[in-house]
Protein backbone atom coordinates (compact mmCIF):
# COMPACT_ATOMS: atom_id res chain seq x y z
CA UNK A 1 0.00 0.00 0.00
CA UNK A 2 1.42 3.41 -0.94
CA UNK A 3 1.30 6.03 1.76
CA UNK A 4 0.74 9.64 0.67
CA UNK A 5 3.95 11.51 -0.13
CA UNK A 6 4.74 14.58 1.95
CA UNK A 7 6.68 17.75 1.14
CA UNK A 8 7.94 19.54 4.25
CA UNK A 9 9.14 23.16 4.09
CA UNK A 10 11.82 23.85 6.73
CA UNK A 11 14.25 21.56 8.51
CA UNK A 12 14.18 23.06 11.99
CA UNK A 13 13.03 20.97 14.93
CA UNK A 14 9.44 20.88 13.61
CA UNK A 15 10.38 19.82 10.07
CA UNK A 16 12.97 17.27 11.15
CA UNK A 17 10.68 15.71 13.76
CA UNK A 18 7.81 15.57 11.26
CA UNK A 19 9.99 14.05 8.53
CA UNK A 20 11.19 11.38 10.93
CA UNK A 21 7.75 10.58 12.35
CA UNK A 22 6.12 10.46 8.91
CA UNK A 23 8.86 8.36 7.38
CA UNK A 24 8.64 5.88 10.25
CA UNK A 25 4.91 5.69 9.50
CA UNK A 26 5.71 4.75 5.89
CA UNK A 27 5.35 8.08 4.05
CA UNK A 28 7.90 9.14 1.44
CA UNK A 29 9.07 12.60 2.52
CA UNK A 30 10.89 15.45 0.77
CA UNK A 31 12.29 17.90 3.30
CA UNK A 32 13.24 21.28 1.82
CA UNK A 33 15.53 23.65 3.74
CA UNK A 34 16.59 27.07 2.54
CA UNK A 35 19.91 27.00 4.38
CA UNK A 36 22.82 24.93 3.15
CA UNK A 37 24.38 24.39 6.60
CA UNK A 38 22.84 23.34 9.87
CA UNK A 39 24.48 25.57 12.47
CA UNK A 40 22.15 26.37 15.38
CA UNK A 41 21.93 29.76 17.04
CA UNK A 42 21.31 29.75 20.78
CA UNK A 43 22.61 27.04 22.99
CA UNK A 44 20.03 25.36 25.12
CA UNK A 45 16.64 23.72 25.03
CA UNK A 46 14.61 22.25 27.82
CA UNK A 47 12.71 19.16 26.75
CA UNK A 48 9.82 18.55 29.11
CA UNK A 49 8.21 15.08 29.43
CA UNK A 50 5.52 15.82 26.81
CA UNK A 51 8.34 16.17 24.24
CA UNK A 52 10.94 13.71 25.54
CA UNK A 53 8.35 10.91 25.52
CA UNK A 54 7.80 11.42 21.79
CA UNK A 55 11.51 11.62 20.98
CA UNK A 56 12.04 8.31 22.78
CA UNK A 57 9.14 6.78 20.84
CA UNK A 58 10.82 7.98 17.64
CA UNK A 59 13.78 5.76 18.52
CA UNK A 60 16.10 8.56 19.65
CA UNK A 61 16.35 7.58 23.32
CA UNK A 62 19.85 6.14 23.33
CA UNK A 63 21.34 8.85 21.08
CA UNK A 64 19.78 11.51 23.30
CA UNK A 65 20.87 9.81 26.53
CA UNK A 66 24.49 10.45 25.53
CA UNK A 67 23.97 14.23 25.13
CA UNK A 68 21.22 15.33 27.50
CA UNK A 69 21.35 16.49 31.09
CA UNK A 70 18.62 15.70 33.56
CA UNK A 71 18.65 18.42 36.25
CA UNK A 72 17.58 17.32 39.69
CA UNK A 73 15.43 20.39 40.32
CA UNK A 74 14.48 23.92 39.33
CA UNK A 75 15.39 26.58 41.85
CA UNK A 76 13.46 29.85 41.60
CA UNK A 77 15.24 32.85 43.14
CA UNK A 78 14.69 36.55 43.35
CA UNK A 79 17.17 38.34 41.15
CA UNK A 80 18.17 41.16 43.45
CA UNK A 81 18.90 39.27 46.64
CA UNK A 82 19.31 35.71 45.51
CA UNK A 83 16.76 34.38 48.01
CA UNK A 84 15.21 31.04 47.08
CA UNK A 85 11.50 31.45 46.43
CA UNK A 86 10.62 27.90 45.44
CA UNK A 87 12.01 24.60 44.26
CA UNK A 88 10.47 22.05 41.96
CA UNK A 89 11.99 18.56 41.74
CA UNK A 90 12.78 17.34 38.22
CA UNK A 91 14.90 14.18 37.68
CA UNK A 92 13.23 11.06 39.05
CA UNK A 93 10.19 13.03 40.24
CA UNK A 94 9.28 13.94 36.63
CA UNK A 95 9.80 10.39 35.40
CA UNK A 96 7.59 9.06 38.18
CA UNK A 97 4.84 11.64 37.75
CA UNK A 98 4.78 11.93 33.94
CA UNK A 99 6.43 8.71 32.75
CA UNK A 100 9.18 10.53 30.84
CA UNK A 101 12.26 12.59 31.68
CA UNK A 102 12.71 16.37 31.89
CA UNK A 103 15.87 16.85 29.85
CA UNK A 104 18.07 19.78 28.89
CA UNK A 105 20.17 19.68 25.73
CA UNK A 106 22.32 21.80 23.48
CA UNK A 107 20.28 22.75 20.41
CA UNK A 108 23.06 21.62 18.10
CA UNK A 109 22.99 18.18 19.74
CA UNK A 110 19.24 17.80 19.25
CA UNK A 111 19.49 18.98 15.69
CA UNK A 112 22.37 16.60 14.91
CA UNK A 113 20.50 13.65 16.42
CA UNK A 114 17.33 14.45 14.46
CA UNK A 115 19.27 15.11 11.26
CA UNK A 116 21.24 11.85 11.55
CA UNK A 117 18.00 9.94 12.11
CA UNK A 118 16.37 11.63 9.10
CA UNK A 119 19.41 11.01 6.87
CA UNK A 120 19.37 7.35 7.84
CA UNK A 121 15.87 6.95 6.36
CA UNK A 122 16.04 6.00 2.68
CA UNK A 123 12.54 7.34 2.06
CA UNK A 124 13.43 10.90 3.18
CA UNK A 125 14.96 13.17 0.53
CA UNK A 126 16.67 16.21 2.07
CA UNK A 127 16.89 19.13 -0.35
CA UNK A 128 18.95 22.07 0.93
CA UNK A 129 19.61 25.53 -0.48
CA UNK A 130 16.02 25.94 -1.72
CA UNK A 131 13.44 28.34 -0.35
CA UNK A 132 9.82 27.30 -0.60
CA UNK A 133 8.17 30.42 -2.00
CA UNK A 134 4.61 29.20 -2.27
CA UNK A 135 2.38 26.17 -2.35
CA UNK A 136 -0.83 25.54 -4.20
CA UNK A 137 -3.23 22.67 -4.41
CA UNK A 138 -3.41 20.87 -7.70
CA UNK A 139 -5.77 18.13 -8.73
CA UNK A 140 -5.22 15.50 -6.04
CA UNK A 141 -2.01 16.97 -4.66
CA UNK A 142 0.14 20.01 -4.03
CA UNK A 143 2.78 21.91 -6.00
CA UNK A 144 5.49 23.83 -4.15
CA UNK A 145 7.52 26.56 -5.85
CA UNK A 146 11.17 26.34 -4.84
CA UNK A 147 13.77 29.02 -5.48
CA UNK A 148 17.54 28.80 -5.29
CA UNK A 149 19.67 31.76 -4.35
CA UNK A 150 20.82 32.13 -7.97
CA UNK A 151 17.18 32.65 -8.98
CA UNK A 152 16.61 29.20 -10.51
CA UNK A 153 13.09 27.93 -9.86
CA UNK A 154 11.67 24.45 -9.71
CA UNK A 155 8.41 22.77 -8.75
CA UNK A 156 8.07 20.01 -6.20
CA UNK A 157 4.92 17.86 -6.27
CA UNK A 158 3.58 15.72 -3.44
CA UNK A 159 0.28 14.46 -2.05
CA UNK A 160 0.35 17.01 0.77
CA UNK A 161 2.53 19.84 2.10
CA UNK A 162 3.60 20.90 5.57
CA UNK A 163 4.80 24.37 6.46
CA UNK A 164 7.47 23.99 9.16
CA UNK A 165 9.16 27.18 8.03
CA UNK A 166 9.30 28.99 11.35
CA UNK A 167 7.91 32.19 12.77
CA UNK A 168 8.20 34.12 9.46
CA UNK A 169 6.45 31.33 7.53
CA UNK A 170 5.77 31.85 3.84
CA UNK A 171 3.33 28.94 3.75
CA UNK A 172 1.09 30.44 6.43
CA UNK A 173 -0.73 32.46 3.80
CA UNK A 174 -1.74 29.35 1.89
CA UNK A 175 -3.44 28.08 5.05
CA UNK A 176 -4.75 31.20 6.76
CA UNK A 177 -5.57 33.30 3.72
CA UNK A 178 -4.90 37.07 3.87
CA UNK A 179 -4.45 37.09 7.69
CA UNK A 180 -1.54 34.72 7.15
CA UNK A 181 0.38 37.65 5.70
CA UNK A 182 0.06 39.63 8.96
CA UNK A 183 3.55 39.42 10.48
CA UNK A 184 4.16 38.26 14.05
CA UNK A 185 4.29 41.13 16.55
CA UNK A 186 7.26 42.14 18.64
CA UNK A 187 6.26 41.50 22.26
CA UNK A 188 8.62 43.94 23.97
CA UNK A 189 11.17 41.33 25.09
CA UNK A 190 14.72 40.65 23.96
CA UNK A 191 16.46 37.36 24.78
CA UNK A 192 20.22 37.36 25.42
CA UNK A 193 21.79 33.93 25.00
CA UNK A 194 25.29 32.66 25.79
CA UNK A 195 27.15 29.75 27.35
CA UNK A 196 29.81 29.51 30.04
CA UNK A 197 32.29 26.64 30.40
CA UNK A 198 31.05 24.84 33.48
CA UNK A 199 34.34 25.23 35.35
CA UNK A 200 34.27 29.01 34.75
CA UNK A 201 30.76 29.37 36.22
CA UNK A 202 30.35 30.33 39.89
CA UNK A 203 30.25 27.12 41.89
CA UNK A 204 26.82 27.88 43.35
CA UNK A 205 25.31 27.90 39.85
CA UNK A 206 27.34 25.16 38.18
CA UNK A 207 25.43 22.29 39.74
CA UNK A 208 23.07 19.82 38.19
CA UNK A 209 20.03 22.06 38.34
CA UNK A 210 18.03 24.65 36.46
CA UNK A 211 18.06 28.17 37.87
CA UNK A 212 15.25 30.66 37.31
CA UNK A 213 15.82 34.22 38.56
CA UNK A 214 12.93 36.68 38.66
CA UNK A 215 13.44 40.45 38.57
CA UNK A 216 11.51 43.54 37.67
CA UNK A 217 11.12 43.60 33.87
CA UNK A 218 13.63 40.75 33.46
CA UNK A 219 14.35 37.12 34.22
CA UNK A 220 17.23 34.69 33.74
CA UNK A 221 17.30 30.93 33.17
CA UNK A 222 20.40 28.72 33.26
CA UNK A 223 21.09 24.99 33.08
CA UNK A 224 23.93 22.67 32.06
CA UNK A 225 24.16 21.52 28.42
CA UNK A 226 26.64 19.66 26.17
CA UNK A 227 26.72 16.67 28.51
CA UNK A 228 27.52 19.01 31.40
CA UNK A 229 30.47 20.80 29.79
CA UNK A 230 28.67 24.17 29.46
CA UNK A 231 26.13 26.22 31.34
CA UNK A 232 23.50 27.71 29.03
CA UNK A 233 22.33 31.17 30.12
CA UNK A 234 19.28 33.02 28.76
CA UNK A 235 18.40 36.50 30.03
CA UNK A 236 15.13 38.03 28.88
CA UNK A 237 14.81 41.79 29.34
CA UNK A 238 12.02 44.15 28.40
CA UNK A 239 12.90 46.69 25.74
CA UNK A 240 10.68 49.11 23.83
CA UNK A 241 12.30 48.57 20.43
CA UNK A 242 13.29 45.22 18.91
CA UNK A 243 16.92 44.56 18.00
CA UNK A 244 17.83 44.02 14.35
CA UNK A 245 18.56 40.51 13.14
CA UNK A 246 18.26 37.08 14.73
CA UNK A 247 21.59 36.73 16.41
CA UNK A 248 22.90 40.21 17.11
CA UNK A 249 26.14 40.24 19.15
CA UNK A 250 25.97 41.99 22.54
CA UNK A 251 28.31 42.76 25.44
CA UNK A 252 27.87 41.50 29.00
CA UNK A 253 28.27 45.09 30.24
CA UNK A 254 25.25 46.20 28.17
CA UNK A 255 23.26 43.28 29.49
CA UNK A 256 24.19 44.09 33.09
CA UNK A 257 23.08 47.70 32.46
CA UNK A 258 19.72 46.47 31.12
CA UNK A 259 19.11 44.17 34.09
CA UNK A 260 17.84 45.33 37.48
CA UNK A 261 20.02 44.79 40.59
CA UNK A 262 21.53 41.32 40.35
CA UNK A 263 22.71 39.06 43.20
CA UNK A 264 26.45 38.30 43.23
CA UNK A 265 26.48 34.71 41.85
CA UNK A 266 24.18 35.63 38.98
CA UNK A 267 26.27 38.71 38.14
CA UNK A 268 29.37 36.49 38.13
CA UNK A 269 27.67 33.98 35.80
CA UNK A 270 26.71 36.73 33.37
CA UNK A 271 30.22 38.20 33.43
CA UNK A 272 31.76 34.78 32.80
CA UNK A 273 29.74 34.25 29.61
CA UNK A 274 31.10 35.33 26.26
CA UNK A 275 29.53 35.54 22.81
CA UNK A 276 26.19 36.97 23.88
CA UNK A 277 23.64 36.94 21.06
CA UNK A 278 20.42 38.93 21.14
CA UNK A 279 17.10 38.05 19.59
CA UNK A 280 13.80 39.93 19.76
CA UNK A 281 10.79 37.85 20.76
CA UNK A 282 7.77 37.76 18.47
CA UNK A 283 4.45 36.12 18.94
CA UNK A 284 1.22 35.58 17.08
CA UNK A 285 -1.88 33.74 18.26
CA UNK A 286 -2.29 30.35 16.60
CA UNK A 287 -4.63 30.74 13.64
CA UNK A 288 -5.91 28.20 11.18
CA UNK A 289 -3.51 25.25 11.04
CA UNK A 290 -4.72 23.41 7.94
CA UNK A 291 -6.53 24.07 4.69
CA UNK A 292 -7.08 21.32 2.16
CA UNK A 293 -3.83 19.45 1.74
CA UNK A 294 -1.58 21.99 3.43
CA UNK A 295 -0.92 22.17 7.18
CA UNK A 296 1.34 24.24 9.43
CA UNK A 297 3.34 23.08 12.41
CA UNK A 298 5.84 24.41 14.93
CA UNK A 299 6.55 28.13 15.06
CA UNK A 300 4.96 28.57 11.62
CA UNK A 301 1.62 27.70 13.20
CA UNK A 302 2.05 28.96 16.75
CA UNK A 303 5.17 30.86 17.83
CA UNK A 304 5.41 30.70 21.62
CA UNK A 305 7.20 33.11 23.93
CA UNK A 306 9.94 31.14 25.69
CA UNK A 307 8.58 31.70 29.25
CA UNK A 308 7.33 28.14 29.45
CA UNK A 309 10.08 26.49 27.38
CA UNK A 310 7.50 24.91 25.07
CA UNK A 311 8.03 26.09 21.47
CA UNK A 312 10.09 23.10 20.39
CA UNK A 313 8.02 20.78 22.57
CA UNK A 314 4.83 21.86 20.77
CA UNK A 315 6.56 21.34 17.42
CA UNK A 316 7.49 17.79 18.45
CA UNK A 317 3.92 17.16 19.63
CA UNK A 318 2.64 18.46 16.28
CA UNK A 319 4.91 16.04 14.42
CA UNK A 320 3.66 13.03 16.39
CA UNK A 321 0.02 14.05 16.05
CA UNK A 322 0.36 14.56 12.29
CA UNK A 323 2.02 11.23 11.68
CA UNK A 324 -0.63 9.40 13.67
CA UNK A 325 -3.51 11.23 11.97
CA UNK A 326 -2.17 10.62 8.48
CA UNK A 327 -1.47 6.98 9.18
CA UNK A 328 -5.03 6.25 10.11
CA UNK A 329 -6.41 3.44 7.99
CA UNK A 330 -8.67 5.55 5.83
CA UNK A 331 -5.80 7.81 4.86
CA UNK A 332 -3.59 4.94 3.91
CA UNK A 333 -5.77 4.15 0.94
CA UNK A 334 -6.01 7.70 -0.32
CA UNK A 335 -3.03 7.60 -2.62
CA UNK A 336 -4.54 4.53 -4.26
CA UNK A 337 -7.68 6.52 -5.00
CA UNK A 338 -9.89 4.08 -3.13
CA UNK A 339 -11.63 6.44 -0.68
CA UNK A 340 -14.45 8.93 -0.87
CA UNK A 341 -14.01 12.72 -0.50
CA UNK A 342 -10.46 13.64 0.46
CA UNK A 343 -9.19 11.65 3.44
CA UNK A 344 -5.85 13.48 3.43
CA UNK A 345 -7.55 16.86 3.82
CA UNK A 346 -9.81 15.32 6.47
CA UNK A 347 -6.80 14.00 8.39
CA UNK A 348 -5.12 17.44 8.25
CA UNK A 349 -8.34 19.11 9.42
CA UNK A 350 -8.45 16.62 12.31
CA UNK A 351 -4.84 17.45 13.15
CA UNK A 352 -5.64 21.18 13.18
CA UNK A 353 -8.73 20.69 15.32
CA UNK A 354 -6.73 18.68 17.85
CA UNK A 355 -3.72 20.96 17.97
CA UNK A 356 -4.98 24.53 17.79
CA UNK A 357 -6.67 24.61 21.24
CA UNK A 358 -3.60 23.16 22.92
CA UNK A 359 -1.26 25.55 21.08
CA UNK A 360 -3.40 28.52 22.14
CA UNK A 361 -3.47 27.36 25.73
CA UNK A 362 0.31 27.03 25.79
CA UNK A 363 0.74 30.43 24.10
CA UNK A 364 -1.54 32.05 26.69
CA UNK A 365 0.22 30.35 29.59
CA UNK A 366 3.60 31.48 28.26
CA UNK A 367 2.41 35.10 27.94
CA UNK A 368 1.00 34.98 31.47
CA UNK A 369 4.29 33.60 32.79
CA UNK A 370 6.09 36.53 31.17
CA UNK A 371 3.89 38.99 33.07
CA UNK A 372 4.34 37.10 36.34
CA UNK A 373 8.10 36.58 35.97
CA UNK A 374 8.70 40.27 35.20
CA UNK A 375 6.36 41.77 37.79
CA UNK A 376 7.52 44.38 40.28
CA UNK A 377 6.13 46.02 43.43
CA UNK A 378 3.11 44.49 45.19
CA UNK A 379 2.42 42.04 42.37
CA UNK A 380 5.92 40.61 42.75
CA UNK A 381 5.46 40.36 46.52
CA UNK A 382 2.20 38.46 46.01
CA UNK A 383 3.86 36.19 43.43
CA UNK A 384 6.72 35.38 45.81
CA UNK A 385 4.27 34.56 48.58
CA UNK A 386 2.27 32.24 46.34
CA UNK A 387 5.46 30.52 45.15
CA UNK A 388 6.63 29.91 48.72
CA UNK A 389 3.24 28.51 49.72
CA UNK A 390 2.75 26.37 46.65
CA UNK A 391 5.57 23.99 47.58
CA UNK A 392 7.32 21.52 45.31
CA UNK A 393 4.33 19.24 44.70
CA UNK A 394 2.06 22.20 43.99
CA UNK A 395 4.46 23.54 41.40
CA UNK A 396 4.67 20.22 39.55
CA UNK A 397 0.89 19.77 39.59
CA UNK A 398 0.41 23.25 38.17
CA UNK A 399 1.96 21.95 34.95
CA UNK A 400 0.37 18.51 34.89
CA UNK A 401 -1.84 19.53 31.93
CA UNK A 402 1.28 20.49 30.02
CA UNK A 403 3.81 17.79 30.83
CA UNK A 404 1.28 14.97 31.03
CA UNK A 405 0.04 15.47 27.45
CA UNK A 406 -0.27 12.36 25.32
CA UNK A 407 -1.31 12.10 21.71
CA UNK A 408 -4.60 10.50 20.78
C1 LIG B 1 15.36 32.31 23.89
C2 LIG B 1 14.57 31.10 23.50
C3 LIG B 1 14.56 29.99 24.31
C4 LIG B 1 13.78 28.87 23.98
N1 LIG B 1 13.81 27.79 24.80
C5 LIG B 1 13.02 26.73 24.51
C6 LIG B 1 13.03 25.57 25.37
O1 LIG B 1 13.75 25.54 26.36
N2 LIG B 1 12.22 24.54 25.04
C7 LIG B 1 11.39 24.56 23.94
O2 LIG B 1 10.66 23.59 23.71
N3 LIG B 1 11.39 25.64 23.10
C8 LIG B 1 12.19 26.70 23.36
N4 LIG B 1 12.21 27.77 22.50
C9 LIG B 1 11.38 27.75 21.29
C10 LIG B 1 12.02 26.94 20.17
O3 LIG B 1 13.34 27.36 19.94
C11 LIG B 1 11.22 27.11 18.89
O4 LIG B 1 9.84 27.01 19.15
C12 LIG B 1 11.58 26.01 17.88
O5 LIG B 1 12.96 26.06 17.60
C13 LIG B 1 10.76 26.20 16.60
O6 LIG B 1 11.15 25.24 15.67
P1 LIG B 1 10.57 25.28 14.18
O7 LIG B 1 11.20 24.14 13.48
O8 LIG B 1 9.10 25.40 14.22
O9 LIG B 1 11.09 26.66 13.58
P2 LIG B 1 12.56 27.12 13.23
O10 LIG B 1 13.54 26.66 14.24
O11 LIG B 1 12.49 28.58 12.96
O12 LIG B 1 12.90 26.33 11.88
C14 LIG B 1 12.39 26.74 10.64
C15 LIG B 1 13.30 26.17 9.57
O13 LIG B 1 12.72 26.45 8.31
C16 LIG B 1 13.70 27.02 7.44
N5 LIG B 1 12.93 27.87 6.53
C17 LIG B 1 12.32 29.05 6.82
N6 LIG B 1 11.64 29.51 5.77
C18 LIG B 1 11.81 28.59 4.77
C19 LIG B 1 11.32 28.48 3.46
N7 LIG B 1 10.50 29.42 2.94
N8 LIG B 1 11.69 27.41 2.71
C20 LIG B 1 12.51 26.44 3.23
N9 LIG B 1 13.00 26.50 4.49
C21 LIG B 1 12.64 27.55 5.27
C22 LIG B 1 14.62 27.77 8.37
O14 LIG B 1 15.89 27.99 7.78
C23 LIG B 1 14.67 26.82 9.57
O15 LIG B 1 15.65 25.81 9.39
C24 LIG B 1 12.99 28.90 22.81
C25 LIG B 1 13.00 30.01 21.97
C26 LIG B 1 13.79 31.10 22.30
C27 LIG B 1 13.79 32.30 21.39
Overview in brief:
This protein is of the alpha/beta class.
Structural key phrases:
eight-stranded mixed β-sheet, 19 strands, 408 residues, six-stranded mixed β-sheet, FAD/NAD(P)-binding domain, binds flavin-adenine dinucleotide
The Rg value, from CA coordinates, equals: 21 Å
The parts where pLDDT drops under 50 for at least 5 residues are: none
Q: Tell me the strand percentage band.
A: 25-35%
Number of strands: 19
Helices and strands: which structural class?
alpha/beta
Instruction: Please state the second-level CATH architecture.
Output: 3-Layer(bba) Sandwich
Q: Biggest sheet, strands in spatial order? A: 5-4-13-14-15-12-17-16
What's the tally of helices? Answer: 12
- What's the rounded overall pLDDT mean? 93
Q: The CATH topology is what?
A: FAD/NAD(P)-binding domain
Task: Characterize the structure shown.
This protein is of the alpha/beta class. It has a single domain (6-184, 284-403), classed as 3-Layer(bba) Sandwich (FAD/NAD(P)-binding domain). The protein has helices spanning 13-24, 49-65, 91-98, 107-119, 172-176, 252-258, 264-272, 311-327, 329-332, 343-373, 377-398, 400-403; strands at residues 6-9, 29-33, 44-47, 73-78, 84-89, 103-106, 124-128, 131-138, 141-147, 153-158, 160-163, 185-197, 210-215, 218-225, 230-238, 248-250, 274-283, 290-291, 294-296. The strands form four sheets. Strands 5-4-13-14-15-12-17-16 form an eight-stranded mixed sheet. A six-stranded mixed sheet has the order 7-2-1-11-19-18. The chain has a three-stranded antiparallel sheet with strand order 8-9-10, with no helix packed on it. A hairpin with a 2-residue loop joins strand 8 (131-138) and strand 9. It is globular. Bound molecules: flavin-adenine dinucleotide. The site of flavin-adenine dinucleotide (FAD) has 36 residues, from helix 1, strand 2, strand 3, strand 8 and strand 12.
Amino acid sequence: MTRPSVAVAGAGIAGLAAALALSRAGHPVTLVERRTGFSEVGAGLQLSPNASRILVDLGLGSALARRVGEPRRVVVRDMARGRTLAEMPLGEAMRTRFGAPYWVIHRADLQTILLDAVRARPDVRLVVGRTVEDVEETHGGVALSLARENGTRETLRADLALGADGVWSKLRRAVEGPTGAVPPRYQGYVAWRATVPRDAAPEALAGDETGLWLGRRAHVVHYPVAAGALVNVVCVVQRAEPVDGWATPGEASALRAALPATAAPLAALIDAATGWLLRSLHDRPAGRMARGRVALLGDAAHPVLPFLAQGAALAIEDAACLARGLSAAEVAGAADGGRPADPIAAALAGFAAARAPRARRVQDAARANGRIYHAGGPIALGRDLVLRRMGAAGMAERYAWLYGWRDG
